[in-house]
Amino acid sequence: MSVLLKNIIRFILLILFQVLVLDQILIHQLVNPYLYMLFILLLPFNLPRPALQLLGFLLGITLDMFTDTMGLHAAACVFIAYLRPFILNILSPQGGFEGTQRTPSITSMGTSQFAIYVSVLVLLHHIVYFCLSVFSFSDPLYLLIKILLSTATSLFLILIYELLFFSRK
Q1: Among residues 4, 38, 57, 67, which one has the fewest Cβ atoms lying within 10 Å of its Cβ?
Q2: Alpha-carbon distance 57 to 81, whole Å?
Q3: pTM of the model
């Protein structure tokens, strides 16, 4: 299957799963699990930054249309799409990532580097999203707990996704 077709299917399935399943889960007004940003995280290494930001915007605005959040997801997705090449550049070894795979995964990056890559970008996504949605620092402890718990839940879901769907080549 071509990389383009895989990414189109991933885009559609992640949006549907987010809207139909994960958006229905809210634990004590603190935990909002988000898995849709995995689309941006798993795009090919060599994708140009403008294309990456455009795809991030399309992903975010599509979810915004379903959830009526007026651009919050789009802003957070464009932010992590912009920072993704910098994070990958910091984490990449001198000769680039090994293997024949052209997309970030546990097999192409290694477990620890992939975990750092995903953790940093998911945390940054959640910081931007929740700071914009709350738009107040009147209760910073609540905001911090919400960001950390939602990040932990999202990272757990990403780990499950990777263990179910990554290829062991």
Answers
A1: 4
A2: 9
A3: 0.91
Separation of CA 56 from chain center: 10
* Residue among 126, 100, 106 at smallest CA distance from 31: 126
Share of the chain above pLDDT 90, in %: 63
C-alpha triplet 155, 25, 82: angle, nearest 5°: 45
What's the CA angle centered on 101, arms 96 and 103, to 5 degrees? Answer: 80
HSE of 37, CA atoms in CB hemisphere, 13 A: 31
83 exposure class (CB count in 10 Å sphere: 0-12, 13-18, 19+): middle
> 27: which DSSP letter?
B
Position 28 scores a pLDDT of 80
Residue type at 52 in one-letter notation: L
Give the model confidence (pLDDT) of 41-54 as tens digits.
999 988 899 999 99
